[in-house]
C-alpha cells in the first residue's frame, strides 16, 4: 500500500468490539512521565497537616447526627442501600436502585431523599450552594464516603433498572455533541493521555478507572474545596461546552453507574486530594 | 475525491472492516430521552447547538468511534463535502496568529456555574492535545506530536491544502477522529484555519525550529 500524507497517524483499530471495553483508537504517542505521582507528592507536602477534606468529614458527621429541619430529625435512620443507618461500605455499593423512590440513586441524590423525607427539608434547602465550597451536601457526602474507606467498589448494576442505567451511561460516555465534538471518550478512552499537563484517567481500563473512582469525593487544591463526583462530572460536561447538567439528574447518575462498574474492585480511599 | 484521498480512505477501511459494534437502538432511545430531561436550564438554541447531534456525531457515538465500512464512508463523504476555503484562496495565513490561537483554550463555555467571560477569545487550543513548538513544554498528548511538521511536509500546494483540510475537518481523512472539526463546526473561521496551517508549515514558525 502506498503511504499517504497522514500515514503517521493511521489508527490501530481493535479487531473485535467487546462492549464498551476496547479503546477505539490506539495512537503511538508514548505515555512518558509520572505527572500524577509528582503532583500528588507535591500536594502531600503542601498538606502535611492533613487533608482539608477531614474538616468537611467532621462537619458532615455533625450534620448527620444533629436533628434538623421541620421534623427536627437527624439522618441517622437514612437508608443508603444497606439498611437504615448502615454507613460502613454504603458508598462503595452506590449508585443502586431504591424501591421507595423508584429511582437509581447515588450517594448525593439519596442523601437529598433522606433530608427531604426524614427531616422535611425542601430539595432547594438540601442542595443549597452545592457548587460552592463548604456546602452541607458536600460535607455529608464526604462523611458518608469516608465510612467506605477500605471497602471495595461493588456496584455491579444487576437489577434491571441499574443495568439499564449502566447501558445508558456507556452510551453517554461515547455520546458526542457540541461545537468541539467532545464526548467523555475523547479525553478518557486511552492510556496515559494528558490535556496540557493534566493526566487523564482511561475509564475503559479497569485499573485506571479504579484509581480515579476510589479517590472521590476529593479535596481539590486548585479550587480550595471538596468536590463530589457529581460536581466533577458536571464540570467535565461544562468543559465539553454543553449546558449545565442538572444536579442529581439521571444523565449524571447513569454516568456514575457506568464508571463505578468500570472501577469494580477498587478499594475506596476517599477523600482524595487532587489538583 | 482525489487519488490521494482515495488511498487514504482505502487504508482506513482495511482497518475498520471488522470493528462494527453499534449500540442497541432501545438503549440509544433511552439515552436520548435521559439527555432530553437532564439539562433543564438549556435554552432551545443551546439544546440545538450543544446537545443535539449532527449525523457524524450520531454515527461516531453509536459505533463507539469504530464505524463499520458504510458508516465510515458516509462520515468521509459528509466531512469532505463540508470543506470550505478562504475567499481569497490563501490557505497559508499568518503563523503568528496561528501561534496565538493554538494556545487559547477559552471560549464556548456556557451555563451558570462557570461560563466564559463575555467576549473572551475562542481559540483552537491545539496545545491541549499536541506538541507544536518544542519549546512549549505544557503540551498534551491526545494527538500526535506536530513538532517539525513543516520541515517534514514542506510547503508544496498539496501539503498546504491537505494540512488546511485536515484542520478544517479532521474526519475528512479519519472518521471519528478525536480532533474537533474546527472549520466545519464554524469554531474557527477559514482564515483562522489558514493561520494554523502557517503555524505548522511556515519555515519561520517556532514549530519548525
- Named at the architecture level, the CATH assignment of the domain at 160-274 in chain A is Orthogonal Bundle
Q: Give the class of chain B from helix and strand content and strand pairing.
A: mainly alpha
- Show the largest interface: A-B, 70 and 75 residues
- Distance from N terminus to C terminus of chain A (CA atoms, Å) equals 46 Å
Low-pLDDT residue spans of chain A = 8-33
Structural class, judged by helices and strands of chain A?
A: mainly alpha
Radius of gyration of chain B: 18 Å
The CATH level-2 architecture of the largest domain in chain B is identified as: Orthogonal Bundle
Q: CATH top level of the domain at 160-274 in chain A?
A: Mainly Alpha
- The portion of residues forming beta strands of chain B comes to under 5%
Morphology of chain A: globular
Task: Please indicate the percent range of residues of chain A in DSSP E strands (runs of 2 or more).
Answer: 5-15%
Give the CATH class of the largest domain in chain B.
Mainly Alpha
In percent, how helical is the residue content of chain B? 40-55%
Number of helices of chain B: 9
Report on this model:
The complex is a heterodimer of chains A (275) and B (209). The model of chain A is unreliable at 8-33 (pLDDT under 50). Among the domains of chain A are: 1-50; 160-274, Cytochrome c-like domain (Cytochrome Bc1 Complex, Chain D, domain 2). The termini of chain A are far apart. Chain A has 275 residues and is mainly alpha-helical. The radius of gyration of chain A is 20 Å and the shape is globular. Helices cover 37% and strands 8% of the residues of chain A. Chain A has helices at 35-46, 53-65, 107-117, 123-126, 136-146, 160-174, 184-188, 206-213, 229-239, 250-262, and strands at residues 96-98, 103-105, 193-195, 198-200, 218-220, 225-227, 272-274. Chain B is mostly helical and 209 residues long. Chain B folds into two domains: 3-81, no CATH class; 95-208, Cytochrome c-like domain (Cytochrome Bc1 Complex, Chain D, domain 2, Orthogonal Bundle). In chain B, 45% of the residues lie in helices and 0% in strands. Chain B has helices at 3-16, 25-37, 44-51, 55-62, 69-81, 95-103, 149-153, 157-168, 190-201. In chain B, helix 6 (95-103) packs across helix 9. Chain B is globular, with a radius of gyration of 18 Å. Residues 1-20 of chain B have low confidence and may be disordered. Chains A and B meet through helix 6, helix 7, strand 3, helix 9 and helix 10 of A and helix 1, helix 2, helix 3, helix 4 and helix 8 of B.
Amino acid at each position: 500500500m502506498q503511504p499517504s500524507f497522514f500515514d503517521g497517524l493511521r489508527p490501530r483499530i481493535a479487531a473485535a468490539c467487546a462492549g464498551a471495553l476496547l479503546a477505539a483508537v490506539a495512537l503511538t504517542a508514548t505515555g512518558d512521565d509520572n505527572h500524577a505521582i509528582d503532583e500528588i507528592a507535591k500536594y502531600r507536602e503542601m498538606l502535611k497537616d492533613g487533608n482539608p477534606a477531614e474538616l468537611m468529614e467532621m462537619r458532615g458527621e455533625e450534620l448527620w447526627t444533629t436533628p434538623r429541619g421541620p421534623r427536627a430529625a437527624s439522618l441517622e435512620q437514612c437508608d443508603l442501600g444497606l439498611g437504615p443507618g448502615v454507613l460502613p461500605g454504603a458508598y462503595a455499593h452506590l449508585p443502586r436502585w431504591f424501591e421507595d423512590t423508584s429511582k437509581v440513586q447515588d450517594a448525593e441524590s439519596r442523601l437529598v431523599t433522606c433530608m427531604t423525607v426524614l427531616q422535611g427539608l425542601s430539595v432547594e434547602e438540601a442542595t443549597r450552594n452545592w457548587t460552592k465550597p463548604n456546602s452541607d451536601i458536600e460535607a455529608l457526602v464526604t462523611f458518608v464516603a469516608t465510612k467506605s474507606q477500605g471497602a471495595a467498589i461493588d456496584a455491579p448494576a444487576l437489577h434491571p433498572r441499574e443495568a439499564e442505567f449502566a447501558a445508558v451511561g456507556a452510551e453517554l460516555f461515547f455520546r458526542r455533541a457540541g461545537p468541539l465534538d467532545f464526548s467523555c471518550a475523547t479525553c478518557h478512552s486511552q492510556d496515559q493521555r494528558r490535556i496540557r499537563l493534566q493526566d487523564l484517567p482511561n475509564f475503559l481500563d479497569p485499573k485506571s478507572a479504579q484509581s480515579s473512582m476510589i479517590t472521590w469525593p476529593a479535596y481539590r487544591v486548585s479550587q480550595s474545596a471538596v468536590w463530589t463526583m457529581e460536581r466533577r462530572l458536571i464540570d467535565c460536561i461544562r468543559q465539553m461546552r454543553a449546558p449545565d447538567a442538572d444536579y442529581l439528574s439521571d444523565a449524571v447518575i447513569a454516568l456514575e453507574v457506568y464508571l463505578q462498574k468500570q472501577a469494580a474492585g477498587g478499594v475506596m480511599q476517599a477523600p482524595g486530594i487532587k489538583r | 475525491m482525489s487519488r490521494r484521498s482515495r488511498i487514504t480512505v482505502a487504508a482506513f477501511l482495511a482497518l475498520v472492516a471488522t470493528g462494527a459494534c453499534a449500540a442497541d437502538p432501545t438503549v440509544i432511545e433511552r439515552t436520548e430521552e435521559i439527555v432530553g430531561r437532564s439539562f433543564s436550564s438549556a435554552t432551545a438554541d443551546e439544546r440545538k447547538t450543544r446537545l443535539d447531534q449532527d449525523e457524524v456525531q450520531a454515527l461516531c457515538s453509536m459505533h463507539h468511534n469504530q464505524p463499520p465500512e458504510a458508516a465510515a464512508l458516509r462520515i468521509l463523504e459528509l466531512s469532505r463535502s463540508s470543506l470550505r476555503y478562504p475567499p481569497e484562496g490563501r490557505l497559508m495565513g499568518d503563523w503568528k496568529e496561528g501561534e496565538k490561537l493554538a494556545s487559547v483554550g477559552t471560549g464556548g463555555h456556557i451555563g451558570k456555574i462557570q461560563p466564559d467571560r463575555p467576549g473572551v477569545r475562542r481559540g483552537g487550543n491545539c496545545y491541549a492535545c499536541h506538541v507544536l513548538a518544542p519549546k512549549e513544554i505544557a503540551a498534551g498528548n491526545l494527538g500526535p506530536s506536530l513538532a517539525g511538521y513543516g520541515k517534514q511536509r514542506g510547503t508544496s500546494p498539496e501539503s498546504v491544502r491537505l494540512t488546511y483540510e485536515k484542520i478544517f475537518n479532521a474526519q475528512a481523512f479519519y472518521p471519528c477522529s478525536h480532533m474537533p472539526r474546527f472549520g466545519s463546526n464554524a469554531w474557527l473561521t477559514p482564515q483562522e484555519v489558514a493561520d494554523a496551517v502557517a503555524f505548522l508549515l511556515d519555515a519561520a514558525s517556532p514549530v519548525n525550529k
